[in-house]
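Please decode residue identities from the backbone states below.
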């Protein structure tokens, strides 16, 4: 029994020591850093990640665009001259096409947000219209009752 109490006592001592070590680490790591600083750091990391992802994809598109004239000449029997100017031109064209795609994708995203905001702004008017319609009727005359 004494061994169990000693083990429990030792376990709680280790737990309290690790807890105090963790809390002292947190207090020293975030000493003088506000919540806004942590949010800005998280935003910076997210934006950096997205930027590097776009940069990586752009490089892949440039390489694929540079390889296209070689592929077209060898496998499609196209009469594309294989010189440095042609290879660079195709690489630039592929990057421009990718950047246009990104621009259209961002435009679609922004328009979705604008549409959502407009829906929220117009929601009270839509509700009032339904209430007024329910109170005063639809305003349409019934053609069957008119002919009778």
């Amino acid at each position: 029994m004494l061994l169990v109490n000693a083990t429990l006592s030792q376990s709680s001592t280790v737990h309290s020591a690790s807890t105090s070590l963790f809390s002292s680490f947190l207090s020293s790591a975030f000493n003088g850093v506000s919540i806004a600083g942590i949010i800005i750091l998280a935003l910076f990391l997210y934006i950096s990640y997205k930027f590097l992802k776009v940069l990586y994809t752009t490089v892949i598109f440039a390489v694929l665009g540079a390889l296209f004239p070689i592929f077209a000449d060898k496998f499609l029997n196209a009469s594309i001259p294989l010189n440095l100017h042609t290879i660079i031109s195709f690489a630039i064209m592929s990057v421009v096409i990718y950047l246009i795609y990104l621009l259209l994708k961002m435009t679609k995203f922004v328009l979705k947000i604008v549409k959502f905001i407009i829906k929220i702004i117009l929601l009270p008017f839509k509700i009032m219209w339904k209430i007024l319609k329910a109170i005063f009727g639809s305003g349409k005359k019934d053609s069957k009752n008119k002919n009778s």
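Observation: The CA atoms of residues 142 and 148 lie 11 Å apart.
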